[in-house]
Amino acid sequence: MAEKSYFYGLGRRKSATARVRVMNGKGSITINGKSAETYFADAQMLLKELRKPFEVIENDKYDVTVVVSGGGHAGQVDAIRLGISKGLVAMNEDLKSTLKRADLLGRDPREKERKKFGLKGARKQRQFTKR
């Protein structure tokens, strides 16, 4: 049986979804066909956050391809980071405890609350008047 060419990880955060492929390589990260530096050109802090799983395992010899949709850049980075971590665990089960200790395998469940019927927003109500 042939060895797998890539390992898959799905990451979600807020309304962002990232489908991540992790494979052996030189350490390049491609997001929606662009390099990570081009895609997140406005925020260098987000790029540092993106590479956290590789810093924790002290090995950055993996190429990452990502298809991400929905949300803003911050939510997308968190989704990609979770997807990378899951892909690394799929590749090597021994990394699971290391990544879990670094809090990289947990999904942040917070979502936007929906607007309710009869209210101005999710919780905001009309102003009370005594009459």
Question: How would you describe the overall organization of this protein?
Answer:
This protein has helices at residues 36-39, 44-50, 52-57, 73-91, 96-101, and strands at 7-13, 16-24, 29-31, 34-35, 62-69. By secondary structure, the protein is α+β, with helices and mostly antiparallel strands. The protein has a single domain (7-101), classed as Ribosomal Protein S5, domain 2. It has a 5-stranded mixed beta sheet with strand order 1-2-5-3-4. α2 packs parallel to α4 (73-91). The chain is elongated, with a radius of gyration of 19 Å. The model has no long low-confidence stretch (mean pLDDT 92).
Using brief descriptors, characterize the structure shown.
131 residues; Ribosomal Protein S5, domain 2; 5-stranded mixed sheet; 5 helices; 22% strand; elongated
